[in-house]
Design brief:
676 residues; mainly alpha; Actin-binding Protein, T-fimbrin, domain 1; differentiation; cytoskeleton; cytoplasm; IFT81_N_sf; cilium biogenesis/degradation
Length: 676
């Protein structure tokens, strides 16, 4: 405690406070003066809260200080029960409470200034949920959050720039280096120009080089555009594939369903969505709001230690035990009258729980189905990227397998036929070869006979005439068959058109009736939806009003509870002060010297006398020191001169010894020369 007070006094005597306190004067400060001193320190950290205590009520002062200490994340020592004592001590200006706060604040003033500056922009204003339903308020709140995020990013960049250590000297050095590089490049360009000027047609070559550079840049831009177009085309093909898959699914669903089944599915979906909107989601929202409210309340409280958590757990266990006892008493009290409905209540609760579980399972299944659909789309896109075909469904795969089996059977059959035809082709080829040989032999014999008779070429001319007549007859037959086929095809087409018209007429009539029914059902669905929306809006308005009323009552209850605790704390403090005053009067009036020594007045009187005696001794010591200061200084000067004189003598003695040693060496060297 003494070191703590010494540190506080030293900091308060420095800039910017300059209070000129000592330990006695600081310890003798009254509660109001301590509170004003704490307010001055907090005002130095955050100038927005700087104000005099005479301008506000004690409750406002305590609230202002507690808010700022909460923002600065001050953790008061002790358990949860000590927190109320801390608040009470802050209101009354108790020294055991104020001194640790001052010590904590003065230890980290610069850090807390930064935290208070950031809190002005980063402490979020809580807007009630009913106000956020207004579009204008919601837009302003969104802009506020975006600006807060932008401020965070800018502050981080500012801190990083500070940490990076880029100074103006380094920037100037970089600029000077860049200017030198610029001068060097300019000189190099000048040298290159001079070298180029000696070349013939250098202007034309420069123009060609410039055009080449422009064309290269254009080629790069076109390549980039081509790449972008390819990526866009790929994404468009993916979207087209997804749309085709969805179209096939919708066509499959429409082909296999009827209007009654579609309406039934729509009714089931509407019932499920209405259950989610009216029961499940509001209940979840309420639980989320409650958890958020408690979390905000926990965040607003100062940090808790393990002892605080243990005390809270013990208190929770006690409250749960009391609740269980009350529930058992109520069941014992009301069970005979309520026994008829207990079974129905249990069944209703079980059904509601099952309903909630099934709704959650359905929601999870829908989410899983959507995730699987996304995975399927990704896999199909990957298959398309690998230039493969589309991924088949189960039915399509079965059809594909059946087709493969039938094709395999057909392939085996045709393979046998090909083997038989190949064998027969070999036989026929051999027969043809034999017949050709015989034909050639007969032709040679015939030519020899014609030459003998003098009519060579007669057989060839006869064959040509027969071949031409055969071709003409075939052409006539083909023309006749073509005309017959065309006339038959026209008749068939006319008959098919008439048949299709006759078969589609009742379907078209039925389709018109179904369209009319669909329009009526759509209109009825829109009317029901409007009624549902109006009913939901009315219920939502009533719910908001009830929530506002409950919130107001809770705040009023909390305020009354706070006032109650505050009055109890004030009462306890006054009782303690009254008890201390009574004990002080009793000790002061008591004739027993030992009891009188226990009185605070006697203790302080004794301390003051001791301090006065100590002051007298110190003044006498100071007087003795002042009187002996002059002679002592002269004596110290004489000793310093004596020390310099002795140092000088030592150096002279060392020099003399060195010179004597050198002379002796020289003499010995001369004697050696004489001997030689």
């Amino acid at each position: 405690m003494g070191d703590q007070m010494q540190f506080i006094v030293e900091k308060l005597n420095q800039e910017p406070f300059r209070k000129n306190y000592n330990l006695i004067s600081f310890d003798s400060l009254e509660s109001l003066q301590l509170l004003q001193l704490l307010s001055d320190v907090l005002g130095e950290i955050d100038p927005k809260v700087r104000r005099a205590l005479r301008d506000e009520l004690p409750e406002q002062t305590a609230k202002r200080m507690l808010n700022l200490l909460g923002i600065l994340k001050y953790k008061p020592p002790g358990t949860v029960s000590d927190l109320s004592a801390f608040r009470q001590g802050l209101v009354t200006g108790s020294k055991p409470v104020i001194h640790p706060v001052l010590h904590w604040l003065l230890q980290r003033t610069n850090e807390l200034k930064k935290r208070a500056y950031l809190a002005r922009f980063l402490v979020k204003l809580e807007v009630p949920a009913e106000f956020l339903q207004d579009d204008t308020v919601a837009d302003f709140n969104k802009q506020y959050e975006e600006l807060m995020e932008a401020f965070k990013n800018l502050h981080k960049e500012h801190e990083q720039l500070k940490i990076s250590g880029l100074s103006t000297a380094e920037i100037r050095r970089d600029i000077s280096a860049m200017e030198e590089e610029k001068d060097q490049l300019a000189k190099r360009v000048e040298r290159l120009k001079k070298r180029v000027e000696t070349v013939q047609n250098h202007q034309r070559m420069l123009e060609i080089a410039r055009q080449l550079r422009l064309e290269k840049e254009r080629e790069e831009s076109l390549a980039q555009q081509k790449q972008e177009q390819k990526s866009q085309l790929f994404h468009a093909e993916q979207r087209l594939q997804r749309a085709q898959v969805q179209l096939k699914e919708m066509q499959h669903v429409v082909a296999d369903s009827k209007p009654e089944s579609l309406m039934k599915k729509l009714e089931e979906e509407i019932n499920f969505n209405s259950y989610l909107v009216t029961e499940k989601i509001p209940r979840e929202m309420e639980s989320k709001k409650t958890s958020v409210y408690f979390l905000q309340k926990v965040v607003a409280e100062p940090a808790m230690t393990q002892a605080d958590l243990t005390a809270l757990e013990r208190e929770i266990n006690e409250v749960n035990a009391q609740m269980n006892q009350l529930i058992e008493k109520r069941m014992m009290k009301y069970e005979p009258a309520d026994s008829k409905f207990s079974m129905y209540r249990q069944q209703a609760s079980i059904i509601s729980r099952k309903k909630e579980a099934k709704a959650e399972e359905l929601q999870a299944a829908k989410e899983e189905m959507s995730s699987l659909e996304r995975q399927m789309e990704q896999k199909s896109s990957q298959a398309h990227e690998l230039e493969g075909s589309e991924v088949l469904t189960e039915d399509e795969f079965k059809q594909y397998v059946n087709k493969l089996r039938s094709k395999n059977t057909f392939y085996k059959k045709k393979r046998l036929e090909i083997a038989e035809i190949t064998a027969e082709y070999g036989i026929l080829q051999r027969t043809e070869e034999l017949l050709r040989q015989r034909h050639e032999a007969i032709q040679q014999q015939l030519q020899a006979i014609e030459e003998k008779k003098g009519i060579s070429g007669y057989s060839y001319t006869q064959e040509e005439l027969e071949r031409v007549s055969a071709v003409k007859s075939e052409m006539d037959e083909v023309k006749g068959q073509t005309l017959d086929n065309m006339s038959e095809m026209v008749k068939k087409l006319n008959a098919m058109v008439a048949e299709k018209k006759a078969s589609l007429a009742p379907v078209i009539k039925e389709l018109r009736q179904l369209r009319q029914n669909c329009q009526e059902l759509t209109q009825e669905c829109d009317e029901k939806k409007i009624q549902y929306d109006s009913c939901a809006a009315g219920l939502e308005t009533n719910r908001s009003a009830l929530e506002q009323e409950v919130k107001g009552l809770l705040e009023e209850c909390a305020q009354e509870e706070s006032n109650y605790h505050y009055i109890n704390c004030m009462k306890r403090t006054l009782e303690i002060q009254l008890q201390r005053a009574k004990e002080e009067m009793k000790a002061y009036v008591s004739p027993d010297p030992q009891e009188r020594r226990k009185a605070v007045r006697e203790q302080y009187t004794r301390i003051i006398l001791e301090q006065e005696n100590l002051g007298k001794k110190l003044r006498e010591k100071q007087k003795v020191v002042r009187e002996s200061h002059g002679p002592n200084m002269k004596q110290m000067k004489m000793w310093q001169d004596f020390e310099q004189l002795m140092e000088c003598k030592r150096e002279c003695f060392l020099k003399q010894q060195n010179q004597a040693a050198i002379g002796q060496v020289i003499q010995e060297g001369g004697k050696d020369r004489l001997v030689l």
